[in-house]
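FORM 7B - TANDEM STRUCTURE REPORT

SECTION 1: FIRST PROTEIN
SEQUENCE AND TOKENS:
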Amino acid sequence: MHIRILETGEPPEPLKSQFGDYFVMFQRLLAPHSSNFSFSTTRAHVGEATPALSEFDGLLITGSPAGVYDGLDWIEPCAELVRQTAKAGKPQVGICFGHQLMADALGGKAEKSDKGWGVGVHDYAIKAQTDWMIPPSNHLACAVSHQDQVTALPPGARILGGSEFCPMGVLEFAQGPAISFQQHPEFAHDYGETLLRFRKGRIPADRADPGIASYKNRSDRELMGKWIANFFLQHEK
């Protein structure tokens, strides 16, 4: 199964040499779960054209420092790719900005939240189980790094999980198959902590310091990788 990773951002330059880019991170996360996976990337945020539907079996959309409302030239082509992928019945997964982009493109809304920054390891309650959530869990603890949130669901979408801080944190879309997560399962804890220390100053200390400390807690990122792989494989054609 060939998965196209649509990169909509990249790690800060000083961190890339140590940790790699998002394409590398997602390969590390997903490749162990199936020998049938292959991967390619489109770096949409630097102007690369979105791929034709014939060029992938599944689509994964990464995080980004951009907001879906920013009006950057590359955002609407990515939103149109989301809609076309949904119409074609190909599986797609959104992460952070990808989560927000999918919701916005399919008829919902994402915007800057008045709750401010969410950083560090956040625990989401899983409110609805579905068949790709194997092995099952009633919660997901994983890295987050965002100011924006999904604030209105697209028609027919349902909330699979979230928290008081981020109620619409895990979504399943009626147009699809398509799912999305506000959390960052591709962030290993050493990367997440390093990134947050790098951004300290931009992010208020009352959020940054507890966020840094939270990286000592456990993570369900490997479980999330398994779930995402299960989802893609379930919809392989």
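SECTION 2: SECOND PROTEIN
SEQUENCE AND TOKENS:
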Amino acid sequence: MSITFNGIIEFVAVAETQGFSAAARKLNVNVSHISRKVAALEKALGVSLLARSTRNVRLTDAGQSYFSRCQELVYGLQEANETVFDKQVELSGTLKVSAAGEFAEQHIAPLLMEFAQLHPKLAIEMDFNSQMVNFIDDAFDFSIRYGPMKDSSLIARKLTNRSLVAAASQEYLSKHGTPEHPSELAKHHCLMTNNTTWFFSHEDKRLEVKLDARWRSNSGRSVVSACERGLGIAYMPRSSYGDALKNGNLQPILAPYWNRDIATWIVYANRNFLPAKARLAINFLLEHFANWQE
């Protein structure tokens, strides 16, 4: 069978908008153009992709399978075209980014400063807030988030994997002893950020420990400070400790049980409508972290 790309963009638009009229508005063409292109594509493939009725349009089984492949092709083509265009455009306006924690301050912010230097007419606004944001109401272009993504309506691209590390001061360990298994943490003072449940991993098995906090704060730095003062045990990403592990102020514990593959994500609402300033900034970050090791 000969390969045809004629009608694919129109078909994907119909599938995404669930209607010929909506697809025509999206592509800024008339409805008859959409109808002709999709019909020609179906004829070329020899299969019905859409089930049409007077009220709605839905994908057939073959159409659903074809759409899942074609959507990525269309996005890839758009990005390829935009890459050429982006090299000729001068970025301006404001790029608004939500991020939080030591990792964002140490790594994300400096990179976005470098990105700003490459685009002198672009302003960058960073909000260091650990709460999930409303991309529409709060006008954020993208956010940096850590851990499992719960909102399937968002686009999430993995930036890097990071490791959780349990640590305490030598003063605390001398006074209270060193736990040898996560289950023993219930007998210890624990210092927490947002979660009262800590997840560990051992021999491909997940270990879940629900704990009470002696110190709880959404500031990673304050948790590290409390840990250095001997208030208890912390369990956070390695980068959140700053220099406390390197200079010996804190001692790593429970190393065989650390969760070592927690992803950090770039999250945004819908890449169909991602402006060039956001797309280029995202690609800039992804390229930097391609071979990054924590």
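SECTION 3: OBSERVATIONS ON SECOND PROTEIN
Residues 61-86 form the longest helix (26 residues).
Residues 93-162+263-288 form a domain with the D-Maltodextrin-Binding Protein; domain 2 fold (CATH 3.40.190.10).

SECTION 4: SIGNATURE
Preparer initials: ____
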